[in-house]
Design goal:
Radius of gyration of chain A: 18 Å
Structural class of chain B: mainly alpha
Helix content of chain A: 55-70%
Number of strands of chain A: 0
Shape of chain B: globular
Strand content of chain A: under 5%
Oligomer: heterodimer
Structural class of chain A: mainly alpha
Strand content of chain B: under 5%
Largest interface: A-B, 79 and 96 residues
Distance between the termini of chain A: 42 Å
Number of helices of chain A: 3
Number of domains of chain B: 2
CATH topology of chain A: Helix Hairpins
CATH class of chain A: Mainly Alpha
Radius of gyration of chain B: 22 Å
Number of domains of chain A: 1
Number of helices of chain B: 12
CATH architecture of chain A: Orthogonal Bundle
Largest sheet of chain A: none
Order of helices and strands of chain A: HHH
Distance between the termini of chain B: 61 Å
Shape of chain A: elongated
Chain lengths: 114, 315
């Protein structure tokens, strides 16, 4: 097995683990964390595709590598927005639950449902 | 070569173990610490995949900044953790989630095992045209020339997410200072570090951004290091976050995208297409864009970390 295949399989497992955490963790911050873990696996799959495309004196195809760099920055921006939304929800309702039947039923309570 | 195989297998097992730790540890704060370790071990994987540019960005943004952001949130939300334990889904939901996650992982693994041979690659084309961009680093060439539109849009996305974060402020605090005021012992280690480290860190950040043209590095990791220095001074209470209504701040935040757009539109006249560079000035124009980008990335990332305005303008 080449190292690209090994890390490709690792990326696949990380996506599965992140998805599981996203689904079963009730706390929104743990969901954000799991989603970032999932993202790490997706980026790794890109890195494996890049590594397999090594050639022309490069260790990997620079196009998927550049896409991952862009993706990392966008993932951070999305995480920052998600965390700000969560902290605002906590500030407004005093809890961080995503349940629809949560006690704090203000006008913006619906927006937090999922 | 067998020792490298063993090394890589060990590294993969380490990443996997840390990922499981991140998901299974009870306290959220500990989970975030595990996530930072996860990001740093992934950085090693990126080095093994011959992607040093990605490794730098992963260490700086994926692990470092995201980790600090989530640590802060975990500390603020500590009181809500006890309640969420009661909301854990039942066994049936957990089994279904595990089945779905396993299915997705298996499908991806199959896709990895049956990737086409020989692998499709754009590396030869990227290298063939690279001299025309004046860059020596193919990844920077992709980011700043071949796929410049992606990078431009990404700058705008990051700016929009900052506007999104700011818009969560209470009406009466709009235009105020972001985040809580940090107090630290003025003679303590943190304040000492916040006075001594930034001069070095800012130079290192600029150097890494400048080096990106020919070596691993670039505007993203460079800008992130400068943002980290700014955050350090804010956390130590050496400086305070500026009110978001300041005109100079708004100017810095749009400088990157505006310079990028201006160069992009000038491409219509000098090279016949949007975001095209005339060959003779390609490197100079890319450096101009990158200077604006480093400034904007540092300011935007720093303010994304600081959060929405929470205090009125007066200190």
């Amino acid at each position: 097995m080449t190292s690209a295949t090994l890390f490709g399989l690792l990326g696949s497992v990380l996506v599965g683990l992140g998805l599981f955490g996203l689904l079963v963790h009730p706390h929104p911050l743990r969901k954000i964390l799991s989603f970032n873990l999932l993202g790490g696996g997706v980026f790794l799959l890109f890195g494996v595709v890049a590594r397999r495309g090594a050639g022309a004196g490069l260790g990997g195809d620079p196009v998927p590598q550049a896409l991952v760099i862009t993706g990392l920055v966008v993932a951070f921006a999305a995480t920052a927005l998600a965390v700000a939304l969560l902290l605002r929800l906590f500030q407004e309702s005093g809890s961080a639950t995503l349940r629809n039947d949560a006690p704090a039923d203000k006008d913006d309570g619906e927006a937090a449902g999922h | 070569m067998s020792w490298t195989v063993a090394l890589e297998a060990g590294l993969a097992a380490l990443v996997l173990g840390v990922a499981v730790w991140t998901l299974s540890v009870r306290q959220t704060f500990a989970a975030v610490v595990a996530f930072v370790v996860y990001g740093l071990t992934l950085t090693l994987v990126w080095v093994r995949l011959s992607a040093p540019d990605v490794a730098l960005t992963e260490a700086a943004i994926g692990s470092g900044l995201t980790g600090v952001l989530l640590l802060g949130a975990a500390a603020r939300l500590r009181a809500t953790e006890a309640n969420s334990v009661a909301e854990r889904p039942g066994a049936a939901v957990r089994v279904a989630a595990a089945a779905l996650a396993t299915l997705v992982a298996l499908a991806l693994a199959a896709a990895v095992l049956y990737l086409p041979e020989p692998a499709h690659t754009l590396a030869p084309q990227a290298m063939a045209e690279l001299p025309a961009t004046g860059m020596g680093n193919a990844v920077t060439g992709v980011l700043m020339a071949y796929r410049a539109a992606d990078t431009l849009l990404e700058k705008v996305v990051v700016l929009i997410s900052l506007i999104g974060v700011w818009s969560l402020a209470e009406d009466k605090l709009w235009g105020g200072r972001p985040g809580p005021l940090h107090h630290a012992d003025p003679d303590g280690a943190l304040a000492f570090l916040a006075r001594r480290l930034p001069p070095v860190g800012i130079v290192v950040g600029i150097y890494i951004a400048w080096l990106g043209a020919d070596q691993p590095g670039g505007a993203f990791p460079g800008g992130t290091i400068i943002a980290a220095m700014w955050l350090l001074t804010m956390m130590a209470g050496v400086t305070d976050a500026p009110p978001i209504s300041r005109r100079w701040l708004r100017f810095v935040l749009v400088a990157g995208p505006v310079v990028f757009l201006a160069v992009g539109f000038s491409g219509f006249f000098t090279a016949g297409a949007f975001l095209a560079y005339p060959v003779a000035y390609a490197k100079a124009l890319i450096v101009v864009i990158e200077v604006g980008m480093v400034l904007t990335i540092a300011a935007t990332l720093g303010l994304l970390m600081a959060g929405p305005p929470e205090r009125s303008e007066k200190p």
